[in-house]
Known about the structure:
Elements: E1 7-9, H1 20-23, E2 32-36, E3 39-43, H2 48-64, E4 69-73, E5 77-78, E6 92-96, E7 104-105, E8 111-115, H3 121-135, E9 139-144, E10 149-155, E11 161-168, E12 173-175, E13 181-183, H4 185-189
Parallel strand pairs: 5-7, 8-9
Antiparallel strand pairs: 1-3, 2-3, 4-6, 6-8, 9-10, 10-11, 12-13
Amino acid sequence: MTAMTATIQPPADPEQPFTVRDLEGMPDDGRRYELIAGSLVVSPAPGRPHQKIGYRLYGVLEAACPEEFDVLGAPFAVHVPDDDRNELQPDIVVGRYDDFTAKDLPVAPVLAVEVLSPSSAIYDVNVKRALYGEMGVASYWVIDPEKQSMRVFELDDDGHYQLVAKVADDEPFEAVKPFAVRIVVKELLGRLAR
Length: 194
């Protein structure tokens, strides 16, 4: 059995890249459809550890979330104005409450979280991190279910991500940005933790 991986589908005509509008016609088939530089990235449905972490993290963040922010889980579109060639769907997104529309977050979130899957790890760690930085996402968390670890990146004054924390297993991360919350990866995995 082979693992399904994310696939990149470049536009048929490089002069006419995929746009955010093209995503509206994609099927509702359990896959994630994102745009990176006008190329369509299709990822298979995530597995059990990914989903367990995502749902539990959502609950922890939602419980601690101040009124001026809102927390949503994937799939939910994130993009920035005047850029119709990039649209991402973080596993968890935190933005200012008033910035959300009914269907998307058309400005940079204050926090984007990606939970690694075998199919998306390379994109999440490298490509999406770079794009989130370009968008101006202040905090970016990457959770690895296999290693039971989490890396926390924050934008510096020059607009580059700096690794500000790395925790594993039952080691807590005491977040300050975008708001105070305590995260323990092993607790997010629950019975799936080793």
